[in-house]
Amino acid sequence: MRQPDIEIYLKDADRQTVGTWLEQSLGPCSPWQSKGEVSTCESASGIPIVWLPKAVGKWHSLLLESDNTPWEDDLACARDAYQALQVEIRCAPGGWQEDEQEEEADRWISLTEQGEQEIIWRTG
């Protein structure tokens, strides 16, 4: 089932490199607008994009606020991003629910040069 939005976490990536990958995947994007730490832009197809550096420690958050992306879910996006950027990426294993048990919320998929693996990542 297609997720309503996509969010992945990237380690050791910069906004410019991620922006180049996004343009290859989504088409041209508007110039980045920054408010404090948060930067936003929009793809030509109308997908709002949010970049939050160091959202969780050294991890940067990339949020695509649309269900109209080329990826069905976070994991598909994370796989594509890893292939293009070759940096460690983490994402939730499925859609996130507000009433989810805490231990379920700490389950993540990590994509590295060693492959994909499920990990426990306590972000709170």
From TrEMBL:
It comes from the Bacteria. This is Uncharacterized protein. It comes from Azomonas macrocytogenes (Azotobacter macrocytogenes).
